[in-house]
Amino acid sequence: MTTRTATARYVGFGKDGKGALTTQSGVLSDQFYGFNTRFADEPGTNPEELIAAAHAGCFTMALSFALAKAGYGEGTLETKAAVKLEQKDGGFAITRSDLTLEASVPGIDADRFAELAEEAKKGCPVSKLMNAEVTLAYKLN
């Protein structure tokens, strides 16, 4: 079992509040976030961006391991995740995460690739965590 941690601190409340995120690894250290980084274009991060990074990374790693297990030893995978935050039921909800993958896997059959990619989409831990629609579009070079 692996446990990872992160800390959020928020000073002030509502739109005027200012937050900072720090991760256990130190990759994020007092990274600024707040209302304007989430709902406008102010520099900083936000929870949805971090979820998108986690989903893209998780799916890509899951597919990489599936390809290795299937006997493929080289190639590249690049995934973009677009996480959608919408108003719903009087609040906000993450309603979907759209994965877009560009892949190069020498020697793989398109049907086999599609099968492995779909399994990785369903099986990655972040996909399992999401209470939202998860889609996958891909281009196999």
Overview of the structural elements:
The strands form two sheets. Strands 1-2-3 form a three-stranded antiparallel beta sheet. The chain has a three-stranded mixed beta sheet with strand order 4-5-6, covered by helices on one side. The chain is α+β, with helices and mostly antiparallel strands and 141 residues long. The protein has two domains: 6-39, no CATH class; 47-140, K homology (KH) domain (GMP Synthetase, Chain A, domain 3). Helix 2 crosses helix 3 (110-123). The chain has four helices and six strands; from the N terminus they run βββααββααβ. The relative contact order is 0.14. The radius of gyration is 18 Å and the shape is elongated. It has helices at residues 35-39, 47-69, 110-123, 125-129; strands at residues 6-11, 18-23, 31-34, 76-88, 91-104, 133-140. A hairpin with a 2-residue loop joins strand 4 (76-88) and strand 5. It starts with 5 loop residues before the first strand and ends with a strand.
